[in-house]
Amino acid sequence: MLFGNVTWPGSLPSDLSALTKGACTATADVYFCSTCGATIFWAAKDQTVKDIVVATGVVENAKEVLRFVEHVYLGDTRDGGISDWVGSAGGERLVRWRENEDPEELEMGWSESGNENKGKSKEQKEVRAWCKCRGVQFTVTPPSKESGMSSPPAPTTTMYILP
Question: In this structure, are residues 74 and 80 in contact, taking their beta carbons and an 8 Å threshold?
Fold first, then answer.
């Protein structure tokens, strides 16, 4: 999952009525906008932990007030996810952690199964995707003559993926 977030000092807002809470992990809940579904922040289930983790996409003027410094939870991606393509931000190298600030820093090109398959082209007919709870699942297929798209869409094309 590609998602920018920042640990924000402070506690939960006092009014959560416009948000929907969901279980993110065994130790954290995630809060979504009840209207549009946008992720707003994560918060520890342990009420003694006061910091919340805010989604950078909801921060006004994020480019001026935030700085990306690392990739975390790459172990969950099994292949490093997008971190190979986004190795730096603002001219600074982004640190790559297997977990969150895990002592194991990962190198570019890391994959769980080793690097033997990195860079090898492999024809893939479809890609399965799902949310964390698997309540939403769908399949993405590459462009083909059958789909009416013989090549990937132009970068300015708006694409929608529906379950």
Answer: yes
Q: Measure the CA–CA gap between 36 and 51, rounded to whole angstroms.
A: 24
Tell me, letter by letter, the H, E, C secondary structure of the chain.
Answer: CCCCEEEECCCCCCCCCCEEEEECCCCEEEEEECCCCCEEEEEECCCCCCCEEEEHHHCCCHHHHCCCCEECCHHHCCCCHHHHCCCEECCEECEEECCCCCCCECCCCCCCCCCCCCCCCCCCCCEEEECCCCCCEEEECCCCCCCCCCCCCCCCCCCCCCC
User: What gap in Å lies between CA 135 and CA 144, rounded to an integer?
Assistant: 28
Residue-wise pLDDT for 58-103, tens only, equals 888 877 877 788 888 888 888 888 888 888 888 888 888 888 656 7
Q: Please report, as a single letter, which amino acid is at residue 40.
A: I
Whether the model pTM is above 0.70: no
The first and second tokens of residue 13, run together, are 């807002």
Note the pLDDT tens digit of each residue in 98-145: 886 567 888 888 888 764 444 444 555 777 777 767 778 888 776 666
